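EI: anyone free to look at a 151-residue chain?
SC: sure, send it
EI:
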Amino acid sequence: MIYLIRHADAVSDEENPVRPLSARGRDQVVGVCKILAKESVFRPAEIWHSPLARSRETAELLARGLGLAAPLVLKPGLEPDDDPGKIAAVLAAEVREIAVVGHEPHLGVLAALLVDGPERAGIFYPFPKAGVLALSRKGKRWRPEWLARSP
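SC: here you go
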């Protein structure tokens, strides 16, 4: 299983150029943690995140909120304008359950690439902030299993 997670709500660039999570964003992560804890379906071996504060903070709050022992891994290639094909290739070789905390538009294009393949380039799956999309492997492609979003 692969879990694609959009970072939670962040403060504006004008408020803080580092763009940490806002109070609303922290609440979004708490809400999605409640859903995931209730269902006991989120068990990543690692939680990958981009170097951006809002991604790292979302990963940290998820791990802490769910009491996960999964290490947080700063992963190159997860920033908003990075090539999603590179992470798709890394995930194709992965056999463990991995959570990927990222950004739009990268995450929406990555989801489409994993599910629909490169021949349907240009498709974009929109993600709600703090949304978690679970994908299971189906041959060389991935199949959406469920989507959790903060209430």
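EI: The radius of gyration is 14 Å.
SC: 👍
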